[in-house]
Each structure stands twice: as structure tokens, then as C-alpha cells.
Specification:
The protein is built from 6 helices and 3 strands, in the order ββααααβαα. The protein is mainly alpha-helical. It has one domain. A hairpin with a 2-residue loop joins β1 (2-6) and β2. The two termini are 26 Å apart.
Length: 179
């Protein structure tokens, strides 16, 4: 993979296997972050329309807990109220980003990203890194540890490092002034 700036755009030359890996990861992110679309009996139509989630609950999956953390860890009631008003929107944002990446990757080995696409990609990569880092239990101390190729998680750590490189590269060469 090669990532470079070209004026106001970012050009990514990507190998077919990398397209497949990123596509698979995007689909997995869609699977775990898509909001519950079931219609709830007696749900307030206005609340549903503006994205208030009457069924919001603190996630039990560590990945979802990391992607959608408690806003007020010392106040469960305030956290739940905050979650009701924000989680659906956060989930929708993850879905939008993953779908953007899938659309950008479709049948291509050369991608040209504008500032909006760049923001979607950076956010997508961030969510992937949070999810994978949570599964691998990566923290400040373990992030740079040397790993043996015989470690059963070696390839996942390599994937995490690749996603980190990709995100850092996009940020360092593609900052569009906070648009």
C-alpha cells in the first residue's frame, strides 16, 4: 500500500488482498455496530425520529463498551440517559463510515479521497483499532512489545500495526484543516 497527498486529495494505491482485508473488516464493523432496527411497541415516534433510543443498554461486549463507553462512569443513571440520546447516532456514524470505505474499495486498487472521504476513513480506522485493540488487550505498556511469530495472535498484532500505520499516515499527510 502506498498513501500520498495529491493537492487537496489523498491517493491510495492498494493491493487486492488489502482491499479484501479492509472490506472484511468493514463488514465486521457493520455487524457489531449497526443499530437495532427492530420496531419497539409503543415507542415514541418523535423519539425514534430524532434518534433517541428507548432500548439503549450498557453493552456487555468489551468492544462495544470501548466504542460506546459510559459518559459518566461514576453515575450510571446519567450515563444511561446520555446513552439514550447519543448511542444510536454513534452507531449510525460507524455504519456510515464502514459503508463509505466499502464503496470506496469496490473493485479498485487506486483510491482518491477528498476531505470528506478522508474523515470517514480516519474515523473508520480509529474504530477498527479500538475494536481490535480491545480484543488483543492492547494498552500503553503492551503496544510496542516485540512478538514472536509463534505467538497465535501474532498476525492480529501485525494487522493492528498495519491499521495504525494507515491511520497515522492518513492523518499526517492528509489533514484538511478540520473541515
Amino acid at each position: 500500500m502506498e498513501i500520498k497527498a495529491d493537492g487537496e486529495q489523498i491517493v491510495i494505491h492498494i493491493e487486492p488482498i488489502e482491499v479484501k482485508v479492509l472490506g472484511d473488516l468493514a463488514n465486521q464493523l457493520l455487524d457489531i455496530t449497526s443499530p437495532n432496527s427492530e420496531v419497539v411497541e409503543n415507542e415514541d415516534p418523535l423519539a425514534a425520529l430524532i434518534g433517541i433510543d428507548s432500548q439503549a443498554a450498557k453493552p456487555t461486549d468489551p468492544i462495544l463498551t470501548r466504542l460506546f463507553p459510559d459518559a459518566y462512569p461514576d453515575d450510571p443513571d446519567a450515563s444511561m440517559e446520555f446513552r439514550r440520546f447519543t448511542e444510536r447516532s454513534l452507531r449510525d456514524t460507524n455504519v456510515t463510515r464502514a459503508k463509505r470505505v466499502l464503496a470506496d474499495l469496490e473493485g479498485r486498487t487506486k483510491l482518491t479521497l477528498n476531505s470528506d472521504q478522508w474523515q470517514q476513513w480516519v474515523g473508520f480506522l480509529n474504530s477498527l483499532r479500538l475494536a481490535l485493540g480491545t480484543r488483543l488487550e492492547i494498552d500503553q505498556e503492551s503496544w510496542n512489545e516485540e512478538r514472536s511469530e509463534s505467538d497465535p495472535l501474532y498476525q492480529l498484532h501485525e494487522l493492528y500495526d498495519w491499521l495504525t500505520w494507515m491511520q497515522e499516515t492518513l492523518i499526517s499527510i492528509g489533514y484538511f484543516g478540520g473541515e
